[in-house]
Each structure stands twice: as structure tokens, then as C-alpha cells.
């Protein structure tokens, strides 16, 4: 398996190859906004970023940042080796339902307790996600929930040929 070549890092940028494994949780005061169905479904300056080697940050917003009724429990669960068991939510707004487009950890592992009462969304399933007004691109591949912004460089896990990274 070929090891990826790091993208150059410019001023004000960070490389996902400098993120740790296991991941770390980092608070942020940047303005994070999520839109679906022509409606702002969440907005906060109290998000958490989960930073993991080769992945763009996954943003977790406090549950209270979501509009009433925007999160509807969905069937199923998954397991993260670092964070524990995840539960899923549909995101609902403006007559649109994004099925299983959000997740959270009802009982995160000790190193990730900060994620309690926080929810992440797949940006590709939303109408638009922004960080400080910049429109986010979804992490390649559709499996992971990372948010790609201009201040983060890869290459990013998730695209073709990155399975073994």
C-alpha cells in the first residue's frame, strides 16, 4: 500500500497529517452553521472539532444549537474504536428529511466525554454547512463525516486508493 504524499501547507493552513491518532477533541469558537430545506437547522460558536490523522475535522455541535425538531432519532448504530457506540438521527427541516445524516455518542468513552450532548452531521447530506461563512466540502468517499475547508490540507482519507491509510 502506497503511503500518501502530503499536500503543501500554506500560511494559515494545517495538515491532516499533523493530526494525532488516536484523535483529539478541540473546542472552537468559529461560527458553524448548517442549512437544510432552506432553513438554518443549527448555528453555534461552541462546536468541537475531532482531529484524526488523514481526516479533515469532524465538527460536533451542541444539541441545543439545533432548531427544535431538527433532529429525529433514527434506527441503527455503529461503533468507533475511539469514541464508542454512536446513535443516528435524521435531520429534518423545510419539508426535507436527510436520513441518518447525523450522529452522536450517548455514552462516549472516557477520552471523548466532551462529545456527550453533541451531534455531528455529514456535510454532503445537508444543503450547506459553513465555518465562518466558508462553504464546507464533504470528506471524499461519503463514508466519513469530515468537513473540508480552505485552511485544512490533505490528502484526505476516503477517496479512491486510501482504504489502507
TrEMBL record:
Residue numbers spanned by region Disordered: 1-24
Domain of life from the UniProt record: Bacteria
Domain DUF427: 32-123
Pfam families found in the cross-reference section: NTP_transf_9 (PF04248)
Protein name: DUF427 domain-containing protein
Organism per entry: Nocardioides iriomotensis
Amino acid at each position: 500500500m502506497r503511503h500518501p504524499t502530503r499536500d503543501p501547507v500554506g500560511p494559515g493552513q494545517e495538515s491532516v497529517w499533523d493530526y494525532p491518532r488516536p484523535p483529539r477533541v478541540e473546542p472552537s469558537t468559529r461560527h458553524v452553521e448548517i442549512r437544510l430545506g432552506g432553513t438554518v437547522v443549527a448555528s453555534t460558536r461552541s462546536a468541537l472539532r475531532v482531529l484524526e490523522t488523514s481526516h479533515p475535522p469532524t465538527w460536533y455541535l451542541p444539541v441545543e444549537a439545533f432548531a427544535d425538531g431538527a433532529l429525529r432519532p433514527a434506527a441503527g448504530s455503529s461503533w468507533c474504536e475511539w469514541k464508542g457506540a454512536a446513535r443516528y438521527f435524521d435531520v429534518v427541516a423545510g419539508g426535507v428529511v436527510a436520513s441518518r445524516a447525523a450522529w452522536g455518542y450517548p455514552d462516549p468513552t472516557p477520552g471523548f466525554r466532551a462529545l456527550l450532548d453533541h451531534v455531528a452531521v455529514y456535510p454532503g447530506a445537508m444543503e450547506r454547512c459553513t465555518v465562518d461563512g466558508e462553504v464546507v466540502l464533504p470528506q471524499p468517499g461519503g463514508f466519513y463525516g469530515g468537513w473540508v475547508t480552505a485552511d485544512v490540507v490533505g490528502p484526505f482519507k476516503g477517496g479512491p486508493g486510501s482504504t489502507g491509510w
